[in-house]
Amino acid sequence: MAHPDRMTGSLPVPNVQALAQACNRSDEQIPERYIRPEAGAEEVISGYDSTSAIPVIDLSKLCDPRSSHEERARLGSACRQWGFFQLINHGVPDDVIRDLKKDMAEFFELPLEAKTAYSMLPNSMEGYGQAFVVSEDQKLDWADRFGLVVRPIESRDMRFWPAHPPSFRNSIDRYSFETARVARCLLELIAEDMGADLESLLEVFRGQPQVFRMNYYPPCKQAGEVLGLSPHTDAAGLTLQLQVNDVPGLQIKRDSKWFAVNALDGALLVIVGEILEILSNGKYRCVVHRAVVHPSRERISAVVFHRPCREAVVGPLPELVREDGGKARYRSISYLDYMKRFFSAKLNGRSHVESLKIDL
Fold first, then answer.
1. 261: closest CA among 44, 116, 2, 39?
2. 20 to 30 Å CA-CA from 22: which of 15, 83, 246, 296?
3. pLDDT (0 to 100) of residue 200
4. Can you give the pTM of this predicted structure?
C-alpha cells in the first residue's frame, strides 16, 4: 500500500531560491503569481504582547510529580484555547538539534543542480520542490520545501535522503528518533487531558508515522506582499517545528488576529493538527497558521508531522462521542481517503477540517 505522501503530487513551479536571487539582484518585480494582497491586510500581534500571550509548556514539569498537576492543566488549556504552544525542557539533546541545523543550512547552500537531484516525482510529495500547487493560476508561496517519509523506518525511500552534507542522513535519523519520543510523551498526556482511552488514541498513531519537512524561505524585497506559506491547518495529530536560524516568520491565528511567534531559544513549537481536533470530537481546536518572509534574510525551519498509521480511521473517539451525548461532530473517514482530500486542494485556512464537520 502506497504511503499517503506518495499518492498525490503537486504541479511543477519555478525554484523560489533561484527566483529570489534573480529578483533581488535587479529592479525586476516578483511575478504576479506570488503577490498576495491579503498578506498585510490583517492585524498582527507581535513583540511582548504576542510573546506573553502564547502558552509555554515545560515538559520536565509535566513529568515531575511535584508540578505535573498544574502543568498538565496548562497543557490542556493550550490545546483547547490555542491549538499551539512552545515546548521547553523537552529533552532533545543539544547536539542533535545543533547538527540538524548545521546540515540543513549547508544543504540549502548547495548549487541548485545538487538540490534538484532530489526533486519530487510526479504524484508524490516526497523530495525537493513545492507542495499543494493544484492549478496553473493558483497563487504561490515564497518558499522551497523538502519532504521525507522518516517513520516507520521501513517506509523510507533513501533515494531522496541527501548524501550531502555527509552527516545529513544521520542528523535526520537522530532528530526523528528524539521527536518521536517527545510526541509519544505528549500524546499520553493529551489522552489523559481529553478523557480518551490511552490505548485507543495510541492505536491511531501505531508505529509513530512521521514526515519530516524542511522549509526554505528566501528573502524578498517585497516581503509585505508575499506569503512564505499560505494559511492552513495541518493534516497531522501533532506537528513539532524547529526554527533553524534566528529569523522569525511563523504566525498563528486566534480570534481573527495573527500572533507572531518569537521562538524561545531551543524550544519546539507544537501545533495541534486536524487529526487531534477530530479525534477529540472538537474538544481541541487545530490552529490556522502561516509563514511570512523577511526582506533581506533567509528563514529556515524543520517540521516533523506526527500522523496516523495508514490503516487508521480518522473520526471522533467513541468514548468522547458518548461523553457528548452520543453526538459525533465530525464524519469518520479512512486515513488514506482523508489524505487524498487534503492533498488535492490548495491550502486554505480551516476549509478542509470544516468540510468534515457534521451539521447538528
1. 44
2. 246
3. 94
4. 0.95
